Description:
The complex is a heterodimer of chains A (530) and B (120).
Chain A: H1 7-30, H2 36-54, H3 57-74, H4 82-102, H5 113-122, H6 135-151, H7 161-188, H8 191-215, E1 216-218, H9 220-223, H10 226-237, E2 241-246, E3 251-253, H11 254-275, H12 279-284, E4 291-300, E5 303-310, H13 317-326, H14 339-346, H15 355-361, H16 367-376, E6 380-386, E7 390-398, E8 403-411, E9 414-419, E10 423-428, E11 434-437, E12 440-445, E13 448-454, H17 455-459, E14 470-476, E15 479-485, E16 487-495, E17 509-514, E18 520-524, H18 526-529
Parallel strand pairs in A: 2-4, 9-18, 13-15
Antiparallel strand pairs in A: 1-3, 4-5, 5-7, 6-7, 8-9, 8-16, 10-14, 11-12, 12-13, 14-15, 17-18
Helix pairs in contact in A: 1-2, 1-4, 2-3, 3-4, 3-5, 4-5, 7-8, 10-11, 11-16, 13-14
Chain B: E1 4-8, H1 12-24, E2 28-33, H2 36-46, E3 50-54, H3 62-72, E4 78-82, H4 87-96, E5 100-103, H5 108-119
Parallel strand pairs in B: 1-2, 1-3, 3-4, 4-5
Amino acid sequence: MDTSGYAKLFLTESREHLVEINNALLALERDANSDAVDELFRAVHSIKGMSGAMGYKSVTELSHELENLLDKLRNGKILVTTQVMDTLFTSSDALETAISLATSDKPRDLIVNTLVDQLRELAQEPEEPQTFTAEFQVLAETKGAAQAKAEHAPRHVRIDARRLDNLMNAVGELVIVRDRLTLISAQIDDPSLSEATLKASQLIGNLQNEIMTIRMLPVWQVFDRFPRVVRDTAHLLGKRVEFIIEGKEIELDRSMLEEMGEPVLHLLRNALDHGIELPEERVAKDKPAVARLTLTAERDRSTVLIRVSDDGRGIDPDLVLPRAIELGLIEEGTTTLSDEDLIRVISRPGFSTAKKITDISGRGVGFDIVATRVRALGGSLEVRSVPGRGTTVTLRLPLTLAISRALLARVEEEVYAIPLTHIVETFSLAPGMLQHVKGREVLVIRDEPVPAIRLRDRVGLQKGNGQSSQVVLMELADRRAGLVVDEFLGQQEIVMKQFDAVGEDSSLFSGATILGDGAPALIIDPTTLV
Amino acid sequence: MSGTVLVCDDALFMRSMVKDILAQAGFTVVGEAENGMRAVEQYAALKPDLVTMDIIMPEMGGIEAVRQIIEADPQARILMCSAMGQQALVAEAIAAGAKDFVVKPFQPSRVLEAVQRVLG
C-alpha cells in the first residue's frame, strides 16, 4: 500500500518513542531492577511495528534485534552489564539516525550490520540462567501504578502546532481591535453599543485565556532530553554527577518553551564543564565525589523560574576583580566588592567573552549569550555563587512570548509601553523625593535611595509642556530603578512585534506594539534600562 | 464489506493505517483505543461487530483485554494484530478467545481476508 501519507505521523510518534527510550535507558542505568526494561521494550516494539509498515528496513532490523535483547533482559535471562548499557545507548542513537535517514528528503538506509551483530552476541544466553528475586514485587507495584494512571488518562486530539500559532496570532490581533473598539465606544457613549462592546470584550478575553491554556506545555517536553546530554557530557569530562530535575509539570507557552531550551542547555554544560570539579578534586576538598546538579522549574505569578544549581567550585571573586578593573567595568582602586556586584559584572555582555576570565573563574563561557537570549525573551537572569560551594543561576521567564500586559506611559506627546513583568509599583512624584547624591539623581523611596532614570532624557525628547510627575519602580533580579515619566495612561494587553536592532538607541526598546487607537508605541526593555 | 469496528493499538500511526484499510473496504470505524483498558471500556460502550487488537500496549496489553472482553461478551469477534516473532503470544490470545490474527507489517489484502474469516 502507499505509505507516503503516513511518513509524518511515523516521524512524530517515533520521536516520542525515542525520548521514552532515552529516559528509560537512563532509569535502567540507575536501577537495573526498575520497570524501565518494560518501557524500553514497548517503545522499541512500537518503532519496529511502524517502521515495518513503512518499509524502513534498517530501522526495522535494528529495532527487531534490540527487542530480542530487551526481551531477554526483561525475563532475567541476561543481566544488565556496562557493556549491555553501552550497546543499548549506541543502539538508541543509531535508531534515531536510521529514522532520520529513512525519513529524509533522500531516503536511505543506515548500515547497521555491526551493531546488529553486537546485539545478537549480547543476546546469547549464558549457560546458567540468572534470576532476580526482587522481580515479583516490582511487577506488582508497577501494575498498581499503571492502573491508577489509566483511570485518569485524559483524551487527546492531535493538532498541527502551526494552527495553534495562527490561532494565537489571530487572537493577538483581536485583542488589539478589542481595545480600539472599547476606546471608540467610550467616545460615542451609546448605552447599547457600550453593552455589546463590553460583552464582546469579555468573550475575547475568555478566548484568549482558552488558547493560552491550549498552548501551554509542561517543561518536561524540553527537559527530558537533558539527562542524556548531562550524562554524556559528564562521561566525556570524567566527572561524576547526580542530575535532578524538579518541577517537570510546570507549564509554559509553546513559543517560550521552544526558545528556552538552548539557554538552559548552555547553563547545564557550563556547570558541568566549569563549575563541577573532578571527583579527585572534590574528595580532596571533603566534598562527595558525586556532584549534584539540579534543574528546577517553578511558577511565580505570571512568570516561570528556571534554576540551574550545582555544588561545584563557584566563582572566585579574587580572580574576577582584577580583570573587571582591567576592562574598566569597575572603578580603579576598588578592592572590596560584594559578591553580588561581582556577579553583576560577569554576566555583563562583553565581559565573559574574555577567555582568560572564563578559565580561571570557572564561569562565563557564553554567559553573555545566555543573558542576551533571556533578555530577548523578556526575562531576566540572576546568579548567586559561593566560592567552593557552588553556583545557582536563575532565569525568570514570562509565560508566553506572544501577549503580555504593559503599562502605558506618556512623555511629552510620545506613548511608551512598559511590560508589567518587571514593575514593582507606581506612585506620584512627591516634593523632595528626587535628590542628588554624589552628582547622581536618586529617588528616595521609603528612606531608600533608588537610581532615578528620566525617560525624557533617555529617549532624547526636548522639554516641552510635559511635567514629570509619575514614577514606575522597576526591579530586575536585585537591581531597582525608578523611571520618571509625565503621566500614566493605563494598562493594556500588548502584542509584541519585534524589530531588528538599528543603531545603539534601539537597545532601549525590545519591540513595538499597536495601541488601541491604532497608533504605534515602543516597548521599553527594562533589562537595559535598570 | 460492512460493519462496525473498534481499532486498538497504542500507536496512532498503526490505528490510522488499520482505519484506512478498513474504511476503504466499507467498514465504519466507530471507536479507537490506545490501551487494553480503553479497549474493554469502548467495547462495552460501542458493541462493535469487530475489534482489531494490538498485543503489546501500555497500561493493559491486548491479551488481557481479549480475556476481559470475551468474559463480558463471549460472542465478541476479535482479530489480533501481531508483529513478527510473537507466535507464543498469538497462541495465548487465541486461547483467550481471539478469532484470528494478522502479522505486521500489514498487507491490506491479508487484513481484509482475515476480517472476512472472523466475520464469516
